[in-house]
Write a structure and sequence with these properties.
Distance between the termini: 39 Å
Strand order of the largest sheet: 2-3-1-4
Radius of gyration: 21 Å
Largest sheet: 4 strands, antiparallel
Structural class: alpha+beta
Order of helices and strands: HHHHEHHEEHEEEEEH
């Protein structure tokens, strides 16, 4: 059987990636994989939703710690002062922990025989926690941490035998948090309690607009309910909400 779960105890040491571990693999991606070991060791963080939101605001393959801490402080302060949005969390387009990998037929045969090793260096580097049984030529890799999966998938695409790789995506839509970093030190947040056929994209919006200053003080700047007849849509809706994932 191809399905082998790589348990966490064996992954902790593997996070300290060494090029020696990829000596048998000729792929250049093994010599310089994306993401520093210390950054990969920092994930997963305690709040999955905020880490995924921090990922969207970060440049690297993992969430920046300073961004995550700012979000945790700001969102926590908003929830304390404005209980109406307490249960709204960031709805990410994917979990951050899984990619689907399609292998060519010779590589799939090697995998089924327990002989496919081309991806071993990346599996160690990113900390693969589980490899699913194949569905035709596709397998799902589940990681211990959370990553920008487009970048992870791109790394796997460069491995010999990989025909394609893509993030495991979320279905539908739901209540979410949008955030923008202004040129000033104030960060802008929209908590949108979306509803109404969310499997097709959510038709109804109940959005709260906040600003949080550098010292962590949140202020309610506006509210918009799409179901309110005759209420014009404020400019911040398109600026901070509709244009954000």
């Amino acid at each position: 059987m191809v399905a082998r779960a790589l348990r966490h105890s064996g992954l902790i040491a593997a996070l300290a990636f060494s090029s020696l571990g990829c000596a048998a693999d000729s792929s250049s991606i093994c010599k310089a994989p994306p993401g520093a070991p210390q950054e990969i060791a920092a994930t997963p963080r305690q709040d999955a939703h905020l880490e995924l939101l921090a990922l969207r605001l970060s440049d690297g393959i993992t969430a920046e710690e300073a961004v995550y801490q700012r979000l945790a402080r700001d969102v926590g302060a908003i929830r304390v002062e404005f209980p109406a949005v307490r249960d709204i969390k960031y709805f990410a387009p994917y979990s951050g922990t899984g990619i689907n990998v399609t292998l060519d037929e010779p590589s799939l045969a090697k995998l089924q025989a327990g002989e496919y090793q081309a991806w071993d260096c990346l599996n160690r580097h990113f900390g693969v926690a589980e490899i699913s049984p194949p569905s035709e030529t596709m397998v799902t890799l589940t990681f211990k941490g959370r990553f920008k999966l487009e970048q992870v998938a791109a790394a796997y695409k460069s491995i010999a035998g990989v025909a394609d790789a893509e993030p495991v995506t979320a279905l539908g839509d739901g209540p979410t948090i949008s955030v923008a970093q202004d040129e000033s030190s104030t960060w802008r947040y929209v908590f949108d309690n979306k509803s109404g056929d969310c499997m097709s994209g959510c038709m109804v919006h109940d959005a709260y607009y906040f600003g949080v200053t550098e010292d962590g003080k949140p202020t309610l700047l506006g509210r918009w309910q799409s179901s309110s007849a005759g209420e014009p849509k404020p400019d911040w809706v398109d600026r901070y909400l509709m244009s954000k994932n």
